[in-house]
C-alpha cells in the first residue's frame, strides 16, 4: 500500500494533482473547495490511500492524518464511495465532521453533492463514537502547536530530495517551526520551502547560487 507521497507538483486541477516521484508523475485525487489548490512547482507531502477497484487503481491524498483517518471511516459506510467521501472532506474539515456526528446532525452532509438524506443519516449513525479522537484533538490546548520531530525529519528529507543540502533543509525546517508553521507535513513543507526560495544560502533560490 502507498502510505504517503512527497515531491513537486507537475500539474494540477480542481480536485487532483500530479506529483513527481522518481521520474514518474503520480496522479493523486485531493479534496477541493475547502483547501487551496496546488500549483505546479509546489512541494507537497501527502498521506495517501490507494483504492483498488476491478478496473482501476486510484490514489487519494490528504494533507493531514486526521483527513486520511476520516476518509477511511467514510468509505466504510454503506453507500459512500471514495468520490463521495472526498466530497465530504472537500466541504468539511475533519473536526467539523466529528462534531456533526457527535451532535447527530446530518445537515452538513446533505449539502455535499451525491449525499442524499438517507446516506447522510447513515453516515451519522455509522460513525457514532468513531471520531472522538478527532474531535478531542481539535479541543486540546496547543493542538496547532509546533511540528512533531517525525514530521520535521520527514520534511527535511523531502527538501533534500528536491535538491537542497541537508544542513540548509534542516535549518529551514527549524526556522519554519520557530515561526509557527502548522504541525502537519504539507504546511511545514510549504513554509520551509518558502524560506529556501526566499534566499537561504545554498538553496536553489538563494543568493549563493
Could you outline the blueprint of secondary structure elements for this entry?
Elements: E1 4-13, E2 16-21, E3 24-29, E4 43-53, E5 56-62, H1 65-75, H2 82-91, H3 94-102, H4 107-110, H5 117-126, H6 132-139, H7 149-161, H8 166-178, H9 185-197
Antiparallel strand pairs: 1-2, 1-4, 2-3, 4-5
CATH class of the largest domain: Mainly Alpha
**Strand pairing plus helix content: what structural class?**
alpha+beta
**Chain-averaged pLDDT:** 82
> Within the largest sheet, what's the order of strands?
3-2-1-4-5
- Main beta sheet strand tally, sense and closure: 5 strands, antiparallel
Summary tags:
Helicase, Ruva Protein, domain 3, disordered C terminus, 5 strands, five-stranded antiparallel β-sheet, alpha+beta, DNA polymerase, domain 1, 209 residues
Characterise the protein shown here.
This protein is an alpha+beta fold. The protein folds into three domains: 4-62, Nucleic acid-binding proteins (OB fold (Dihydrolipoamide Acetyltransferase, E2P)); 67-131, 5' to 3' exonuclease, C-terminal subdomain (DNA polymerase, domain 1, Orthogonal Bundle), CATH 1.10.150.20; 149-197, Helicase, Ruva Protein, domain 3 (Orthogonal Bundle). It is 44% helix and 19% strand. It has nine helices and five strands. The protein has helices at 65-75, 82-91, 94-102, 107-110, 117-126, 132-139, 149-161, 166-178, 185-197, and strands at 4-13, 16-21, 24-29, 43-53, 56-62. A five-stranded antiparallel beta sheet has the order 3-2-1-4-5. α8 crosses α9 (185-197). The chain is globular, with a radius of gyration of 18 Å.
